[in-house]
């Protein structure tokens, strides 16, 4: 038959107690500092990914706006040509006017297409607070 002895742990005294307390304290400090450091690294990586996604999105918005502005420029050239045609016709005697040509040219003159910029990404950046990202090279002014 085996008899188990109870083992009593005696309270630590002196140098052992101080060493244990210091070891725990240093361990706590290092682990909290390491946790903060790792959190900062993780946040930095996340911000870099977000910056890249937003930069690509802004670039797509700029491409859409550029294509739309090119269409508006072409439309304005048509309007200018129509204005020239109508002015030329108005300087002629009224019996030489071509009514069909006159009304065909009046339509582009009377219609205008406003420019509505694609600002979805910019609005998203303003509301989410990501506009503060340092490395995102945007120079957008309200």
What does it look like?
This protein has 142 residues and is mainly alpha-helical. Helices cover 68% and strands 0% of the residues. It contains three helices and no strands. It has helices at residues 15-90, 99-110, 120-128. The relative contact order is 0.09.
Topology readout:
Blueprint: H1 15-90, H2 99-110, H3 120-128
Helix pairs in contact: 1-2, 1-3
What key phrases describe this protein's structure?
142 residues; mainly alpha; 3 helices; 0% strand; disordered C terminus
Distance between the termini: 88 Å
Q: What portion of residues belong to β-strands?
A: under 5%
Indicate the radius of gyration in whole angstroms.
Answer: 37 Å
Globular, elongated, flat, extended or rod-shaped: what is the shape?
Answer: rod-shaped
Element-by-element helix/strand order: HHH
Largest sheet: none
Query: What would you call the structural class?
Result: mainly alpha
Number of helices in the DSSP assignment: 3
Low-pLDDT runs of 5+ residues are 135-142
Instruction: Let me know the number of strands.
Output: 0
Helical content stands at 55-70%
The mean pLDDT is 83
